[in-house]
Amino acid sequence: MRRARGAFSAAADPFRVDAERLVDIDEATLGALFEVRADNPLVGLGGRVALLRRLGAALDGGRPGALYDRLTARSHTVSVTAILRELLDMLGPIWLTGSTLDGIALGDAWRHPQAGGDGPARGWVPFHKLSQWMTYSMLEPFEWAGATLTDRDALTGLPEYRNGGLLLDTGVIVWRDPADATVAWDVGSELVVEWRALTVSLIDELAPRVRTLLATPDLPLACILEGGTWAAGRALAAEKPLCGARATR
């Protein structure tokens, strides 16, 4: 086993992460940690370094591990939505999508003319794919640390290219104009926002069918995503010319 280097730690404990180390991380350090070489490249290394630096700045001298301490300070029963809310509040500034409302960075939320809601939320479709993905990834570690989680079904499906691609590749979602499939669309375009919103809605329709088919009524949505739609979407993308690029981004 490779010995822990503690590159993200400002203390004697190598298994912790501190903001002051993140804000100073550079490509050479991160590249060495990921064993990046000419024969083992890592796409977007510079962008990943910039993201870690923004994370360090957003932590304002703290540690990402303090999230657990805050959420369990009064009780070890924690709502999954509380984890997501903390992540959205903490990580909002690091996602440079350009979506803002009253000067507040919204992250993965986009305009669509038919989006519902009342007041200032009208017209916005909130996805928060990466923040929800991170929340799903934290569920087991929270439980390992002794927390009891509630509201597991409050999160949505992830509107990303493997899940959305699966629905296109299987004909569940069909192009209104087939020529649109040959165009590179901006992530904030009406077409992409609508595609992602359909992905979330249709995964909600798919999940109970999978549970019924497998006779597992309590199967978490996270399992359906990881072991089902995500894996199947990636496999199909590798077989289809249009989707091959999605699988390697």
Query: What percentage of the residues does DSSP assign to strands (E)?
Result: 5-15%
Major sheet size, sense and barrel closure: 2 strands, parallel
- Approximate shape: globular
The whole-number mean of residue pLDDT values reads 88
* Low-confidence regions: 243-249
What topology, given as strand order, has the largest sheet? 1-6
Question: How big is the Rg?
Answer: 20 Å
**How many E strands?**
6
Determine the fraction of residues in helical runs and give it as a percent range.
40-55%
Q: Supply the helix-strand structural class.
A: mainly alpha
- In whole angstroms, the N-to-C terminal distance is 30 Å
Order of helices and strands: HHHHEHEEEEHEHHHH
What is the number of helices? Answer: 10
Question: Key terms for this structure?
Answer:
single chain; mainly alpha; two-stranded parallel ribbon; two-stranded antiparallel sheet; 49% helix
Protein model, in words:
By secondary structure, this protein is mostly helical. Among the domains are: 17-62, no CATH class; 156-248, no CATH class. The protein is 49% helix and 6% strand. It contains ten helices and six strands, in the order ααααβαββββαβαααα. It has helices at residues 19-22, 27-33, 45-59, 66-71, 80-91, 129-144, 161-169, 190-214, 221-239, 241-248; strands at 77-79, 100-101, 104-105, 109-111, 124-126, 148-150. The strands form three sheets. It has a two-stranded parallel ribbon. Helix 5 crosses helix 6.
